[in-house]
């Protein structure tokens, strides 16, 4: 049997809100080490990789590895019924065709349970090598959200270039052009307000803004976002979810003809 | 003009 209890149920709500428009369905792969998900969008341009550690939960038990096929819009409908302060418990019997979600209010005076029908999903996993990136940039997630939102109103694609001067986001469209440059800045006292650029070599890549903007739906999950760039490789946009784990978005670059 | 790459061009299918 599988059982996972999380006191901060709001994290699960935010997580599903961040994913549900990008990927319609995917397998929650549960094992004794935690819960993982790898899912691509329908056009195979971007990929979501979620890893939640077993020790990040208040309680975690998984007797047998299982792939639970989730329809994210449906899971979202159920999670909307959970209060922001609720503790959420996920439960499933071995080889079950449903996932039970139990919501408990913080003062334990309201308990509800919902069963989500599980799907059988042929998952296509991609092997993503661990590797060194040419540039790794940590910045406030709200800053990333603002930049991609602003640029989406100007153009369709963004050229992201990392140099020793900083990281520059450039776009152009019918109304004109836009450039936003962030410099390495460790002046703010709070680490989550700093911009840290770790540059091994200059790199410049072009991406579709629509997806980068969609990744910013994960902003409520973390104060900091990390962007990793290497020539001719997908960008990684990564949000650490406290001690629980991380969600990473991969987006394939635009390629010159 | 740049074309949108697909993930399979960068990562191997398992």
Question: Your description of this structure?
Answer:
The complex is a heterodimer of chains A (257) and B (14). With 257 residues, chain A is mainly β. Chain A contains 4 helices and 20 strands. In chain A, the strands form 3 sheets. A 9-stranded antiparallel beta sheet of chain A has the order 6-2-3-4-19-18-17-11-15. In chain A, helix 3 packs antiparallel against helix 4. Chain B starts with a strand and ends with a strand. At the A-B interface, strand 10 and strand 20 of A face strand 1 and strand 2 of B. Strand 10 of chain A pairs antiparallel with strand 2 of chain B.
Question: What descriptors fit this protein?
Answer:
heterodimer, A: 257 residues, mainly beta, 9-stranded antiparallel sheet, 5-stranded antiparallel sheet, B: 14 residues
Q: How many DSSP H or I helices of chain B?
A: 0
Rg of chain A, Cα atoms, Å? 19 Å
In terms of quaternary structure, the protein is heterodimer
- What are the segments of chain A in which pLDDT stays under 50 over at least 5 consecutive residues? none
Largest sheet of chain B: none
Shape of chain A: globular
Query: SSE order of chain B in H/E notation?
Result: EE
The major pleated sheet of chain A works out as: 9 strands, antiparallel
Structural class of chain A: mainly beta
Low-confidence stretches of chain B: none
Number of strands of chain B: 2
H/E series of chain A: EHEEEEEHEEEEEHEEEEEHEEEE
Largest chain interface and its two residue counts? A-B, 25 and 14 residues
Order of strands in the sheet with most strands of chain A: 6-2-3-4-19-18-17-11-15
Shape call of chain B: rod-shaped
Distance between the termini of chain B: 31 Å
């Amino acid at each position: 049997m599988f059982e996972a209890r999380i006191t901060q149920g709001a994290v699960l709500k935010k997580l599903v809100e961040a994913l549900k428009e990008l990927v319609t369905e995917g397998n929650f792969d549960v094992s004794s080490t935690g819960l993982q998900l790898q899912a691509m969008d329908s056009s195979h341009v971007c990929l979501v990789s979620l890893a939640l550690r077993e020790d990040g939960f208040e309680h975690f038990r998984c007797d047998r590895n299982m792939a639970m096929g989730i329809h994210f819009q449906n899971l979202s409908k159920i999670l909307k019924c959970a209060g922001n302060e609720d503790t959420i418990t996920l439960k499933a019997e071995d080889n079950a065709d449903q996932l039970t979600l139990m919501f408990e209010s913080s003062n334990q005076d309201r308990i509800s349970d919902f069963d989500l029908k599980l799907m059988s999903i042929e998952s296509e996993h991609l092997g993503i090598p661990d590797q060194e990136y040419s540039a790794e940039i940590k910045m406030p997630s709200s800053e990333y959200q603002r930049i991609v939102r602003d640029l989406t109103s100007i153009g369709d694609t963004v050229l992201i270039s990392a140099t020793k001067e900083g990281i520059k986001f450039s776009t152009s469209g019918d109304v004109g052009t836009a450039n936003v440059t962030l410099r390495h800045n460790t002046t703010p006292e709070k680490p989550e307000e700093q911009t840290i650029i770790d540059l091994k070599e200059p790199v410049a890549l072009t991406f579709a803004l629509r997806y980068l903007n969609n990744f910013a739906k994960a902003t409520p999950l973390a104060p900091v976002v990390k962007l990793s760039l290497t020539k001719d490789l997908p960008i990684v946009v990564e949000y650490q979810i406290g001690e629980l784990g991380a969600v990473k978005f991969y987006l394939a670059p635009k390629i010159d003809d | 003009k740049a074309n949108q790459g697909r993930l399979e061009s960068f990562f191997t299918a398992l």
